[in-house]
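hi support,

uploading two proteins for the ticket. first:
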Amino acid sequence: MSLSIGQLSKKADVPIDTIRYYEKVGVLDRIQRSENNYRVYTEQTLNDLLFIKHCRELDISLSDIKTLKEMKAEPKQACTKIDNLVDKYLNEVSE
């Protein structure tokens, strides 16, 4: 499935400017462009955007979201770093 930025924005309920910003700062992967230079988004992009949106609703920083995404891409690494990150946010919520 291919989505335009407008369709992605509606499905994720995220403003178009926010999607562009997430791409610019590297939280959302750079998107392929079509022959006419339009961004072409996929179901995976939608899933990533929904994950980012959920993290932001939990007040997780963009820097930490990047870290989480990097860890997700390498599932065989030790979980210590992600455990520490999650503990940090759990402590903040508890306070």
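and the second one:
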Amino acid sequence: MPVNLSVFEDFNTIKGINIGTANAGIKQTMRPDIVVFELEESATTAGIFTENAFCAAPVKICKKHLAAANTRYLVINTGNANAGTGEGGHEDAMAICQTIATEKGVSIEQVLPFSTGVIGERLPMDKILPTLPKALANPQDNIWFEASRGIMTTDTQPKGISTQFEIDGQTISISGISKGAGMIKPNMATMLGFIATDAPVEKVILQKLCSELGDKSFNRISIDGDTSTNDSCMLMASGTADIAVIDDEASPQYRTLKAELEKVFMYLAHAIVRDGEGATKFVAIDVSHCENAKEALRIAYTVAHSPLVKTALFASDANWGRILAAVGRSGVRDMIVENINIYLDDVCIVENGARAVSYTEEAGSKVMAQSELTIRIDMGRGNANETVWTTDLSHEYVSINADYRS
């Protein structure tokens, strides 16, 4: 069961962005597995993508099409990642784009494809191509919840959030959905994210927002330390709200929009961790007083990826030596262990590099038994602070991934 994550259903519509869904029976027939976003001509689109060298054909095409034309359609299939499929996989993804382009009278470069699911298998084109017209037949602006269900794979529940606020006296809306539960690690963390606002935003500015906010959210989560082949996060701005185009990052309008978007990015990223495969705990790893952000993240990721730390979290075992050892092997140069303090929430477990005098096993175990906790690591060597979010590692995680293709 997800860790303190509720299903969100009451989305605000984003004028200028419609959604169509259908089921092609790629891997299941209980919910949609094809989702199409249809954007107004005035819309701008930005994206960030996986850094995996074996990135899937849809990722390569998305990057190329995003740079070449004004995006009008995004099409997502689940159940098959179309990764590790060579030239044939590229042809399949292009055929999907061409089908939509022909159906809707746009150029092929105005269509962005996305796939998620099993790696190394060709797409069942005999199922997908006949289903695309069904998804395109009746797009609506109020089926974000249905879309959140349509992009799921091993997720136990859909993930989404929506909010409204004001800029220059006008109501601005943001809605977003994400999927992901396993193969989650920064660069990017298997996940997809689709976030939209009706604010008019210049494309360069929108890309800046997507990159910066994605780096602080989706690139700060880890479930199992595996970077996927298909990760993508898209930010869309329909431009239908009655305010001036946001084209200056120094403007108060930009700052307001960025602050509200940050909340949505963070919620959707955290939702992925909370629904991590087999997860029973949501864990923040907060590393402070480092020489620079790179150093802080290196320490945080080492702890987050440690199987020994993660299994101790699952067992609610206050085996703090595992955390200490992970910090020590993080590769930080010239580490002065006598300066380091480590906490479980507010319980000090390591003080000046050794077991804290005040620490008791009872206090540590009480924190470790919580469904949410923070591991705080104070390095005592600078002013840089960073936080990443992770889960424990349970028996169920092994079972889910052992049975994934069956």
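thanks. also noticed: The chain has a mean pLDDT of 93.
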